[in-house]
């Protein structure tokens, strides 16, 4: 028998136009080692220093137009990372950065400029969901000071560890004046859709944007399920994978905790069994824009 709460939620989604659009925002481009993107049996430090094959890395975030206001999923990168030699304080971080990434950024890739190019004022963003605290996902928070910044409690706990910068979580660009951080404690749900997950958070309280824990890339990484009647459901997974096909194939990237990643992969695939039309969108996937376009194309309904 279907869960009563789930039935009620589906009914609400079917009668309300809660979300009018989901769009990909291009926040610049970079390159990464092939082993970084697709995984390798070689030790990480080997490909960092000796890897010779670089592959493109799109830098993307997402904007959701909800009836209660604009929501970002991540905030892109700060272009200063490629021009300001003091952007990373730790010498070892500065030494390693150019060996892990090659950035191709301009000032136009800053989130307020990216939003303006999309016809959106940065001041209109009401909420930014932060999938995880890596610098290419929190780089725009200074330019949306009015927005509530939603992040999992487990992710913020990394900031209390001795050296978060070793995980490329740069405290100086996160703990900034006036940032309106909201630590999210995930709550248990009686909706059978989410049985495999350790809690959820309903962003707007209407079932249209549900945060799910998908650790592995970082300990507190979260994904967001976006649902609107007439669309395929969308799961924005951040950096859980770099390409949706890799998740389907259990192909783990070259970073993160392999065991935890595989466990999160399995939970996402189980969710897809329950939602067969689910479209999985990774933040660094070149297919993100086409996938979202296909998912949000209004489906005809025949009675």
Which short descriptors sum up this protein?
303 residues, alpha/beta, 10 helices, seven-stranded mixed sheet, Metallo-beta-lactamase, Chain A, five-stranded mixed sheet, 12 strands
Strand arrangement, major sheet: 4-1-2-3-5-6-7
Sheet with most strands:
7 strands, mixed
Strand content: 15-25%
Could you name the ranges where pLDDT drops below 50 across 5 or more consecutive residues?
Answer: 1-8
- In CATH terms, the superfamily is Ribonuclease Z/Hydroxyacylglutathione hydrolase-like
Number of domains: 1
At CATH level 3, the topology is Metallo-beta-lactamase, Chain A
Name of the CATH first level: Alpha Beta
The total strand number stands at 12
Q: Judging from the principal axes of the Cα atoms, what is the shape?
A: globular
Task: Characterise the protein shown here.
The structure is a single chain. The chain has 303 residues and is α/β, with parallel strands linked by helices. It has one domain: Metallo-beta-lactamase, Chain A (4-Layer Sandwich), CATH 3.60.15.10. It has ten helices and twelve strands. The strands form two sheets. The chain has a seven-stranded mixed sheet with strand order 4-1-2-3-5-6-7. A hairpin with a 6-residue loop joins strand 8 and strand 9. The chain starts with a helix and ends in a 7-residue tail after the last helix. The N terminus is likely disordered.
In a nutshell, what does this entry contain?
The chain is of the alpha/beta class and 303 residues long. It is built from ten helices and twelve strands.
């Amino acid at each position: 028998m279907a869960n009563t709460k789930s039935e009620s939620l589906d009914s609400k989604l079917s009668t309300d136009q809660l979300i009018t659009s989901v769009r990909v925002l291009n926040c610049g481009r970079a390159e990464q080692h092939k082993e970084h993107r697709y995984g390798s049996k070689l030790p990480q430090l080997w490909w960092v220093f000796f890897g010779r094959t670089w592959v493109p890395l799109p830098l993307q975030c997402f904007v959701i137009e909800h009836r209660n206001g604009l929501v970002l999923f991540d905030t892109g990168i700060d272009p200063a990372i490629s021009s300001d030699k003091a952007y990373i304080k730790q010498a070892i971080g500065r030494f390693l950065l150019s060996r892990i990434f090659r950035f191709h950024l301009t000032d136009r890739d800053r989130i307020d400029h990216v939003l303006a190019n999309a016809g959106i004022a940065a001041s209109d963003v009401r909420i930014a969901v932060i999938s995880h605290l890596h610098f290419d996902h929190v780089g725009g928070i200074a330019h949306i000071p009015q927005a509530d910044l939603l992040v999992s409690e487990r992710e913020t706990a990394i900031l209390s560890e001795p050296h978060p910068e070793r995980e490329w979580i740069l405290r100086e660009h996160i703990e900034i004046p006036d940032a309106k951080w909201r630590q999210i404690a995930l709550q248990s749900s009686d909706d059978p859709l989410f049985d495999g997950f350790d809690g959820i958070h309903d962003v707007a309280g209407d079932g249209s944007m549900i945060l799910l824990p998908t650790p592995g890339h970082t300990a507190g990484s979260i994904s967001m399920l976006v649902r609107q009647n007439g669309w395929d459901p969308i799961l924005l997974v951040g950096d859980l994978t770099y390409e949706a096909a890799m998740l389907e194939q259990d192909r783990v990237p070259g970073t993160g905790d392999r065991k935890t990643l595989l466990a999160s992969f399995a939970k996402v695939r189980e969710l897809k069994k329950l939602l067969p039309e689910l479209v999985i969108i990774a933040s660094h996937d070149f297919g993100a824009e086409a996938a979202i376009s296909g998912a949000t194309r209004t489906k005809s309904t025949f009675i």
